[in-house]
Amino acid sequence: MSKNDELNTKGKLASQESNIIPSGESVLAELGIEQATLKLITPKWKRTQYRAVINWLTKYKPQPDSPTLEQLRGCLEAFHHLCAVDAWEKAANLIRRGVPVINSTDPLNSSENIYLEEALHSQLGDFGYYREQINLCSQIIGKVNDEVDDICLNSLGLAHRALGNYQKAIECHQQQLAIAPEPESQEIALTNLGNIYGSLGQYQVAIELYQQALAISITLSNEKGQAKLLGNLGVIHRLQGDYEPASEYHQQQLQIVYKIGDRKGIANALENLGIVYYFLRDYQKAAENMQGSLSIAREFGNKRCEASTLGSLGNVYFSLHNHSLARDLYQQQLELSHEIGYLEGEETALGNLGVVCNSTEQYETAIKYYERGLAIARNIGDREGESYALSNLGNTYTYLEQYETAIEYHKQSLGIAAGIGDKWAAGAAIHNLSDTYRLLKKFDLAALLGMRSLYIFACIQSPEVETAMITLSKIALEIGIDEYAELIEEQLHVIEQEESGEQAVAGLRELLFDN
After folding, report:
1. pLDDT grade for 26, boundaries at 50, 70 and 90
2. What's the helix, strand, coil split of the chain in %, to 5?
3. From 20, 223, 280, 429, which residue has the greatest number of CB atoms within 10 Å?
4. What are the start and end residues of each TPR repeat (predicted)?
5. Which own/partner pairs from 172-179 qualify as long-range (CB within 8 Å, at least 24 positions apart)?
6. Residue 11 carries which DSSP code?
7. Residue of 59, 206, 392 lying closest to 51 (CA atoms)
8. pLDDT in tens, 74-96
């Protein structure tokens, strides 16, 4: 599911009320580090480390147009020097601060260009620097107290999930839940666990976790949290193709955020509703809701949200066959994501542009976009994104009738999806292999893989069951109903031997023969 649909943040500072950028001296004062007493620190190696902290916080001046990671560098280096002298509390206080980030070339006193809302450990994740986020938080766990461990385990879980390391992410959030010092922290841990299981296609588990989190949120009278969790429940129902309850959840979400005046929450709810209308093919309502979300994102200067909504709006116009406008919106999504250093946004936009090019039979250009997106996914360690990029490349080579190359890409995609436990992506890769083997007229293999993809999609209650059924029907038309029925029976017998296989086969028979 889209990360923009989810409650997955922790460690936020108070909202910015002015454009005053904290000086390095003021940060040192907050940390209790005084330059005047530096010479009193012994031994010398320790004094050297503190001198490095002071220099990084006061003398490091990145250029306004430098990459985001370079703008965060001063605090990151100061953090590592504090860790070197076991100044764990000071290090913890430093990474819970927001770091000024200039994300455009507009005048520096423009409020939309100063990114202070998130703490440093969260900023790294926001801009896609997941390895750095993991390195930062791993160093300090177990060094201060449960409150700091709670924050760092949360960030670690988010980073591992973004990298496709789902099992590690689950372990982090389970540890977070076990030590959560307050109900609010429990709510966040449960929510993030729900997000992971949603990504794994285990929707019922995700719903149960969200419901537990929602119960805590209601107890705490946390209306903002309730709204976000209702939004998450809506997303899960949407992913299952249950658009009516999804719409109801998002309407409830919208009602609460309007009531409490949460403009950013309104933007999120409007985008969620827009996506539901998109899947219901009510493109006018989809566009209206997304335009509302886009306006609020621009009002707050939330360029990450703006980039995401531009992509969603592009999807609407793509479905309306307005490929020119869709391409323009995706290009805006790409440029804006690049401007703010939002690597995941760039990766998504490149994938979107590739899809547009495929639809207009510009296959070579599509391949270039997908390869650029694949390079970003590999650069940031986004295994999920890598799997999807490989899948898109496979589909494009199928359009070019270069089937053997397509098969290699789909196999790579399947290997990653299976490795990270992404059942939906694994099912999609197996389905794509099935269709490619069908085109190669290797019908035995096509039927075997087609049944396997149908089985996976049925187990996770994915709407892609229909897609798998269509491919199997094409195989039946190619080889005749008698040979098809024989192949299908063979695969049903194999599935029946697996755990809970008898029940699964009963459901598959109903799909295959009773419709």
Report:
1. confident
2. 75, 0, 25
3. 429
4. 150-183, 187-220, 267-300, 307-340, 387-420
5. 176/149, 176/150, 179/146, 179/149, 179/150, 179/153
6. -
7. 59
8. 999 999 999 999 999 999 999 88
